[in-house]
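STRUCTURE REQUEST FORM
Protein name: GGDEF domain-containing protein
Source organism: Microbacterium psychrotolerans
Requested output: structure tokens
Priority: standard
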Amino acid sequence: MDEDSAETLAVGVVRLDRSGTIVAANRWFSDWAGADDVVGRSIDEFLVHSHEDLLPADATLGPWLMLHARERDRAVMMTRQRRGTGEVLMLAEASERFRALIDLRRRYALADRTRTRLEIVMDSSVAFSTASTERSLAEILVDTTARAYRAEESTVLLRNPDGTSRIAAGPDVLRGRIDVDALIAMVAAPRRVVKVVGESEGERLIPGLGAAMRAADVRAFIAAPLHHEEVDFGSFISWFHHERTFDDEAAPLAEALAGQAAQALATLRLQARLAHAATHDEVTGLPNRRVLEGQMDEVLGGRGCAVLFIDLDDFKHVNDLFGHHAGDRMLRDVGRRLLTAVRASDLVARYGGDEFVVVCEVGEPSDAVEIAERILDVFRAESTGSAALSASIGIAVASSGSELVADQLIRRADLAMYRAKTAGGNRIVLEQV
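Status: completed
Returned output:
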């Protein structure tokens, strides 16, 4: 190598022997390497292959993208030529190009993740709309979030309409060490996505959470509130048992998935309320006349069916004296008492006004009379407000194989009830069909 001509070049020129030891190098390379005594040292002390290079490290001539061994943001483009038993390396400054390449790849990776996550959001929107139950919706959310974040496990926590909370789908990763309500409140109170990396961050959120994470070998998690139109339905949590960091798109993706799931959950609960309203009495919550007649058709023709037609005595007096609100309270109390007096398999329904019907399978008419007597005993046990509670009960029993339809059996029980009322009320009249 002509040392004088090499020193004038604005590129690095390095001659190596067959073992990769530097035999000679120009000033440009020494300055770039940051060492005056490069001769006699291995080239590997100064240059390393870049993982971002497009060519394999064993390509014959290059060029290769090489990085400074200590300052990995500095790069050169290197080619080599065989010279006798060694080789000559030609190096040109490429730090700016390297940084541009890194930025371009970062942008491509971001675009690829964005496209993938957009596909996940679109697919999940369709999947959520097909869910017919809260459990199926929760299972879809568990599967979707686990795939979206490549999490080992995901869990969906839901608040029930009655205020209690439960794990709707996915495992109890923390094994009960942290209360479900606390995990929901962690994201429901601030109504924001929470990204936790490490036990210390978890401990700052909920006392004891860091220890629970350590016991469950959880290294990180991301949680989002299931929130729609001022209603907090719960949350989802994706758990990681490996070291994990979150990019800027992790939270927006969680918000999108949680928002879709919460909207679908709101629709399911609205449908459930409407279905319940269509089949249940608004005041007492008992099944209404429609359910009664539909289920009676299933009972008739069995081993024997009894209808107890119950009419409260002097209910009009309660309404006139204390008002309709007091009357409604009495009706609700009657419904609760009826449920305590009958068997678990019996059907209790509000027929209309102050009339209730109990349908039950019986072997003998005496079985129905026994149930009616329990009802009167429960009514007599205590009073509602200022009024004593009593009722007239008519019983109609259809034996096994009877051809009576539901409406006929109810009508006969109604007539028996009327006879009980005209006889003074607070009694039972049985009519056997």
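Reviewer notes: The two ends are 121 Å apart (CA to CA). The first strand starts at residue 12 and ends at 16.
Form closed.
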